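User: Please predict the structure of the protein below. I'd like the answer in structure-token form so I can feed it into my own downstream comparison script.

Assistant: Understood. Taking the following sequence of 603 residues as input:
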Amino acid sequence: MDAGSFARYLGRMDRVELAEVLRVRPEVRVAPVPDGPEALAVRLSDRGSLAAVRLVSRDAVAAGQAAAGLGSGATVAAVAALTGGSREAVRSALGELRRVGVAWPDGEVVCLVPPVLQRWKQAKGRLAVTGRPAVELGRCGTDGEQRSSVQHLLRAAYALLDTSRPIVGLRRGGVGVKERQRWGAALGLGDDYLLLVLDVLFAAGLLVQSGTAFGVTARYERWREATPAQQWAELAWAWFWLPHSPTARQSAAVSKVESSRCRAARWAMLRAGRGGLSVEGVAAAAYWFCPTVHQYVEGVVREAVMVGVVAGDALSVCGEALLSAGNAEALAASVAEVVVPMQCELQVLDDLKAVVFGQLTVEAARVLEASAESLVEDGARVWQFTTASVRAAFAQGWTGESLLASLNELTQHNVPWALRALLGERGRGQVSVREVGCCVVAEAQVIAEVVRLPGFVELAPTVAGSVMASTELVAQLQAEGFAVVEDPSSGSVVVRRAPVAAPVDEAEPVDLPDLDAAEPSTAQIVRGRNRRLSKKAVALLAGAIDEQSDVRIDYVDGKGESSSRTITPIGWDGPFLLAWCHMREADRQFRVERIKSVSPVRP
């Protein structure tokens, strides 16, 4: 069992098997991409292998723990004898470990990558290899059920992406509860469904947050013009790779999330349900199919139905295609005969409400968004034409004739007389005009002071007007103690308060460190950076840093959010503690002063 045996095994692997390993271990394809079996073996043997074992069954964990304990004597026969399973069941279990890139055969001996080997050596107790639990076939959903789920997902995506109203986000990222409630009421969507659609659109690269608002990306137009099969494939593929479960999270949607536990549960559950097996039956046996992530299964099943991957009590045709496809393009080709375009037909009723049947096209969305208000009635989305909405369309450059022509193209029925009459209205409300010689722009509280002076009038909370010329106005404002900047190109004057010199603190003497003194111990460094930790906590953390062993911390990040996580310290990186974060599955920097408590890792 030499160090190069893993590389030699990878070099001999079948292309199909190797492709499957690379698919379930996406982290190994991150740049710099391994350029050969040796580099691939190194990448597969890093700490990412600990996350890969979440994809395997209880029997695979049992066989792996037995192999770790047996060491160089870990043959199939020995593992079977130790776990009480048949040789066939043990071979199947070890095959799962090979398919996720954490085990390989060296002759007759089963080898494990170092992180997994070390973790399973520390496991207490022995698990038995029991064989796969029996799961009955599930009720396959009808074509109508599957089509309804797919169309509902696309309609929700259209509604969020086609609108001109901004989606307001939180400063820390994501969409808050009140904003989701507003959109849910406007679109007739439950909070779980809205969470799912928002996160999927964000993951698919169709939504992006800029400041406190979400907007569509450059990819939106290409996606919107694509076929429904291509549109659904991109959304389903984004959901399949989401590291989290949107409906299982209580925090804001569209946040960039931490751990891949939910994704592991999603992959394990869906693969276990292939061949028409009952999804409910697989979920009930999740303790066997995905023992380390079984608690996330409920969210997986709920979202799979929403996306259209599950119909009835079994994987749909689209779900089976999702598991077989290598990318979104291949998935779109596989479902092209199932997810077919539906003709868009608009019907305008006598009460000035419009209803869309079929797939909402770009042109229909553009016309309705510009000239009507979106409403939800009895769970269905309708558009209401009003005097205000039509005037808003006129303000955007539409005319009554152009709107009527567009509506006639979208409907097979005559546009009602009431709407024709409304489109003939040209009134746009009253407008007042006031002549000024110069404008003053400043903060609202400064404008409030300016308008108290003679010759000024408030035009807006942050704008004041005056009949004076700009030079005369600047001189008067400067005489009143305002800092003034003239903008000749716009005819405006920008006003700020006169700057006040900030007080300067007297310098205090600082004791310089003794460069000849002995270097402080790790415990002294920890104590110096966090004096709130108890002596026991300092000793635990210092010991973990010195030994590079696992330790559990309660940590508060820069946003003030608390979390409990297991870390493996690597060393100091300037003022930061560099460690492998088991929750994030990556190296992370931690500020010691933000650690609230420290405890040993429980097996």
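That's the full token string. Residues 367-423 form one domain.
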